[in-house]
Write a structure and sequence with these properties.
globular, 5-stranded antiparallel β-sheet, FAD/NAD(P)-binding domain, nucleotide-binding (chains A, B), Dihydrolipoamide dehydrogenase (chains A, B), 3 domains, Enolase-like, domain 1, homodimer, alpha/beta, 7-stranded mixed β-sheet
């Protein structure tokens, strides 16, 4: 209160701007490597994922998914007589966000030897961050080794007449909802839009989704198609290839005029049209970078032109996913240590200090109904990247394990195979409860395990993972012969 | 009817004795390779797995598992007001066994160009099988290239006083049950015993399980321990380290005296004490082999001392699992073709014509509550095999994805790491719905993907597969540095 004039200077090896999961991991790796680190955070320590994204959104979706799974199996279905208890779902969500308290995260950071400075941090020069603290004080942080920007991203608000003024919901509001609206319009067609359409439709909200393109564009086309069909079955009014042209507040909520000439009215409006970098007001201009832009990095997450500035997580726009940001954070934290103490830098492809997987091995699960689990390149992206590819498709519903899992199971799987190297470049699974199928594909892609070896990775019967056998069989049994032995002479049986 | 005297001779490239999934796959690969093949089967085409094992047992277990999963999530739990509908479960099981009709399988075989000869086949000399058909006829089958024995295994009935005479249930009866008994004693402690205890306890049957050892011996100890604890919580009377000493029929069912001096009475008795080879009456003596024994093979499934006799599936005792038998069948069918037409034999380790994964990469899912998914070597087995190992343990309940999946999720995971080669030798997951986690471990083991590469196989957040990150972190971040680069000089950042 009386501190408004205080300015102090502190020195750390590493200053981390932004205390989400990514920033926490950079700091943790640095401290575990023997350096000192401070995290600057003006909101909750733990960040977007913990309080307004992954955790609450999945908590909003899980109960309905579990109920759906039980309803899909005779013998169990008969026992499900009630409906989803929305209040219980919201209460459960609250427990996963710790009621938006970061006390647990603060205790973790303290235990991990990481300092936390609450306040708004801005880069104020080379190796320097100036923080305005909530009590009005100013702290100048000097970074002996590195500053890591891990400020993440914000919801992007597209330039639609009246939209910003109407103060729509963003993902934060949708995931932290306390009272479910009777009707909701969602602008957007990506993961957040599709997941929130699924969640709110499950809550009984009348949902309209307006997307200028197809749903889940960028993924294999059948992913968006199947989610589109399922959302429509569940009563969601999907308006694809449609643009909102004007938004206004009404007495009862919102009115959205569309490019089709219609007006959609709803109690609430969610904008889920992508993300914008949180770099507007972090002092980038003081070091010659442009505020409001995504930051380029090399594979060690170092910003080109600097030997002390790292950009980690969403802010570098390599892969806007918590797990991928944490992955980058481990590499960045470790390489900061290696460079600080003169240890070997492991920056060859797949080394410890590079985020190689960001290029072509990024896994993502979309918790819609059906779920979409994808990793690596789509067939289209693989072709565009110059690979000679073959896409192998199989109907998940034909897999014995899937039909045991749920009556009338419907799903689809695709493997994208590099024909020259006989390795998997991408995999997509769409269907109920496919989320946990993904890791095998990620290991196959990252491990560059050739098809002939994958034939020996026998899926347990009867699990849904039998899809692996079916995909290989669909590709053709000739792929079981190791390529470097095709020309070998007959070998005596040992 | 009037055919009793008929004897005819037929010639095929390949004669397959036994038409389970294994025999079907041998024949299918042979036919796809351009050979002719006949399957001899005296029961249902499709075999044990389709009618009396994997399919019906999993069908008996799945509905309860789905219901349990819904009950474990607030928001969904409130909607589950009823109990498992046992009659609906049995009806669902019937649909998976096609009411024990093999018409669909016969149609498949016909479409695949495989001949089917119904009857009891016995080897009657070199490359010869004599079949007694149901109409009293005799068919002598001459095999130009190979005879494949794929007769499988039967329930083993241990030598306990009165047991055989009491005509207890075996796995076939337990999986094809029409009326659920009020009480059931299970003799055995392996997968079938544990799964059937889980299923019947879920049906409301009073279950007593008598095992001379621990439950699920041979797996990581914590697997059996957790299943033991859960079965006890669910009211199963587990008598471990106990031997049945005498069995008798009573007016109400069975009385089983145990080595502890107690007598357990129950309406029904299931013996699930292992498997015996189905080789007693298949003519092995005519070619100098001993009836009633398991058959040795090399890795191409060829029986030593013969150039025409293959033993595939349970009968060779390499890995008594349908998926592993089918895997062997693909290798065997293909190598029979290769040898027949003089094509290269791919029999180096991990080749197309060898079942290399039988040695140290066999996956298995036990559909108990909690589920047990394991692949490769246990820590104990790895040490016994001479590996320098480190076992890495992590509590699955601490994984964010698991706690989202079910409130109060309890589970355990272990990775067995080869310290010399820095690869995974074994993995075990125990917990609700862990079945689909297994394939990633199988790919890692079979692909011999080193730990430093596995760090780049980022699990999607928040899924249960995040266990992979936690296991690697528990092992230690130093494992992220590629071993062959540890001594490399500083490399310039590109």
């Amino acid at each position: 209160m009386t501190n408004t004039e205080t300015t102090r200077t502190e020195e750390y090896d590493v200053v981390v701007l932004g205390g989400g999961a990514v920033g926490e991991n950079v700091a943790d790796r640095a401290v575990q490597g023997g350096l000192t680190a401070v995290i600057v955070e003006h909101e909750l320590l733990g960040g977007e994922c913990s309080y307004w994204a992954c955790m609450p959104s999945k908590a909003l979706l899980r109960s309905a998914a579990a109920l759906r799974a039980a309803r899909a199996v005779r013998g169990a279905a008969e026992a499900v007589t009630g409906d989803l208890d929305v209040q219980a779902v919201l209460a459960r969500r609250d427990s996963f966000t710790n009621n938006w308290s970061d006390a647990g995260q603060v205790a973790w950071a303290t235990g991990a030897g990481i300092d936390l400075l609450r306040g708004h941090g801005r880069i104020s020069g080379t190796r320097e961050v100036t923080v305005h603290t909530p009590d009005g004080g100013t702290v100048v942080l000097r970074a002996r080794q590195a500053v890591a920007i891990a400020t993440g991203s914000d919801a992007y608000i597209p330039d639609i007449e009246g939209l910003r003024e109407a103060r729509p919901w963003t993902s934060r509001d949708a995931t932290s909802v306390k009272e479910v609206p009777a009707s909701l319009v969602i602008i957007g067609g990506g993961v957040v839009a599709a997941e929130m359409a699924t969640a709110y439709a499950g809550f009984g909200t009348r949902v309209t989704l307006i997307s200028r393109g197809a749903l889940l564009a960028g993924m294999e086309p059948f992913a968006g198609e199947r989610v589109t069909a399922a959302l429509r079955e569940n009563g969601v009014d999907l308006r694809l290839q449609t643009e909102p042209s004007r938004v206004a507040r009404t007495d009862h909520g919102f009115a959205i005029e569309t490019s089709a000439g219609d007006t959609v009215e709803a109690e609430q409006l969610l904008v889920a049209a992508g993300r914008a970098p949180r770099s507007v007001d972090i002092g980038l201009e003081t070091i010659g970078l442009r505020p409001g832009t995504w930051l380029d990095t090399d594979d060690t997450l170092l910003v080109p032109g600097f030997d002390w500035l790292y950009a980690v997580g969403d802010i570098n726009h390599r892969a806007l996913l918590t797990h991928q940001g944490k992955y980058q954070a481990r590499a960045a934290g470790d390489v900061i240590v290696a460079r600080a103490i003169g240890r070997d830098v492991s920056d060859a492809r797949w080394g410890a200090h590079v985020a190689s997987a960001d290029h072509g091995a990024v896994p993502q699960v979309t918790f819609t109904d059906p779920e979409v689990a994808s990793v690596g390149l789509t067939a289209e992206a693989a072709i565009a990247a110059g690979h000679r590819v073959r896409a192998v498709d199989y109907d998940l519903g034909w897999v014995a394990g899937a039909s045991l899992h749920a009556d009338g199971y419907r799903g689809q799987a695709r493997l994208v195979v590099d024909e020259d190297r006989s390795v998997v470049l991408g995999a997509t699974f769409v269907g109920p409860d496919v989320a946990e199928l993904l890791q095998a594909a990620t290991v196959a892609i990252v491990g560059e395990v050739p098809l002939d070896r994958l034939w020996h990775a026998v899926p347990a019967y009867p699990t849904v993972n039998e899809i692996w056998l079916r995909l290989l069989e669909t590709y053709g049994r000739e792929s079981a012969i190791p390529k470097n032995r095709e020309r070998a002479d007959l070998t005596p049986v040992d």
